[in-house]
Amino acid sequence: MAVSFDSYVMIIAHRGSTTPSIKENTIEAFQLSMDEGADMIETDIRSTKDKKLVCSHNAVWRGQNKKYDVRRMESQNDKERRMVSISFVRSFCCVG
């Protein structure tokens, strides 16, 4: 059954849903927004030094213990940075 967008209000989670312990543009924020019923997730994209696309609103990424300049860092999937790649977002959100 097709959804008529003329009579449907979509809920779009801006950078995911956040709490004091869940940062924006993270896997946890995206999952929480889906759990809360969001229809879509809006995120911000930055390019790393090695030209990988990651979710970050600002050029400076605030990790758990320090700040990182996204433009100067390599795309790494480590626990400190917790950067989310665009390929992950596509696999997470683009279902159906």
TrEMBL record:
<dbReference type="GO" id="GO:0005886">
    <property type="term" value="C:plasma membrane"/>
</dbReference>
<dbReference type="GO" id="GO:0006644">
    <property type="term" value="P:phospholipid metabolic process"/>
</dbReference>
<dbReference type="GO" id="GO:0008889">
    <property type="term" value="F:glycerophosphodiester phosphodiesterase activity"/>
</dbReference>
<dbReference type="Pfam" id="PF03009">
    <property type="entry name" value="GDPD"/>
</dbReference>
<dbReference type="GO" id="GO:0006580">
    <property type="term" value="P:ethanolamine metabolic process"/>
</dbReference>
<dbReference type="InterPro" id="IPR030395">
    <property type="entry name" value="GP_PDE_dom"/>
</dbReference>
<dbReference type="InterPro" id="IPR017946">
    <property type="entry name" value="PLC-like_Pdiesterase_TIM-brl"/>
</dbReference>
<protein>
    <recommendedName>
        <fullName>GP-PDE domain-containing protein</fullName>
    </recommendedName>
</protein>
<dbReference type="GO" id="GO:0070291">
    <property type="term" value="P:N-acylethanolamine metabolic process"/>
</dbReference>
<feature type="domain" description="GP-PDE">
    <location>
        <begin position="9"/>
        <end position="96"/>
    </location>
</feature>
